[in-house]
Amino acid sequence: MLSLIHRFRVLVNSQFDNYTIIHLSFTVSFAQIIIILLLLLETSFRNPLLFQLDKLKRSRAQLAVKSIGATMFVVMMYDIYSVLEIRTRSIDSINNSPNHVILAFHLLEASLVGFMLILLVVINRLHQYIKEFVMVTETIRAANKQYRANEDCMKKIADEAKIVREEISRLKLEINNLESACSIKEQAVQLQRADSDALKNTLEGLLGEYDRLLTYNKDLKEQLQGVNERLSPSDGKKSAFFSWDRWGL
């Protein structure tokens, strides 16, 4: 395992100079810090950067990023191993200028590589959190919009209900007025009915009195006719006295 790491390190050193690796590490670290700042700050570059990160995670470039991360991790482990190997030597060998420089170089490189890996993990998690935050924010905005729409609808319904209640109150007032007018008319009808019953009773009494008078008149006629028949036909004055034409009967 260590031999493979050493060979990989030799291959990397053969392709890049040590100072080139340090400069590249500083450049990548600063680029990662700028990406983190752009993700944290609400600027016009935030949404395009999120879109590009989503596109990067969905494409095959994610495998390349993972491969580079694995390579950086291997380099960091080799640097840590080199530091531990140098520290296991004697103090005199460490104080020598070449070993001291190599130790400082490995420490710097391991720190930079570890810092880059941490920043890479931070970018990944921050992208996920910001993406979830954006989704939650959009959901909250949609819910607030729906709530405002429901509130406007409820306000409109409340206004309509208020108008209906006012209309019901007006109709109740009209019904009460109509009931009062109907009660007054019913009382008037009852009074007229009582007057009609009284007039009917009076008329029946008058009709009875009229029938009685007719009977009395008929009896009186019969009595006068009988008296007139008993008188002598020769007595003209008395006959004229009991004449029906004289009395208008």
Automatic annotation (TrEMBL):
Main location: endoplasmic reticulum
Keywords in alphabetical order: Coiled coil, Endoplasmic reticulum, ER-Golgi transport, Membrane, Protein transport, Transmembrane, Transmembrane helix, Transport
Gene3D superfamilies with a match to the protein in the record: 1.20.5.110
Transmembrane segments: 20-42, 63-81, 101-123
Subcellular localization: Endoplasmic reticulum membrane
One GO location term (cellular component): endoplasmic reticulum membrane
Recorded family membership: Belongs to the BCAP29/BCAP31 family.
Function noted in UniProt: May play a role in anterograde transport of membrane proteins from the endoplasmic reticulum to the Golgi.
Protein name: Endoplasmic reticulum transmembrane protein
Organism in which the protein naturally occurs: Deinandra increscens subsp. villosa
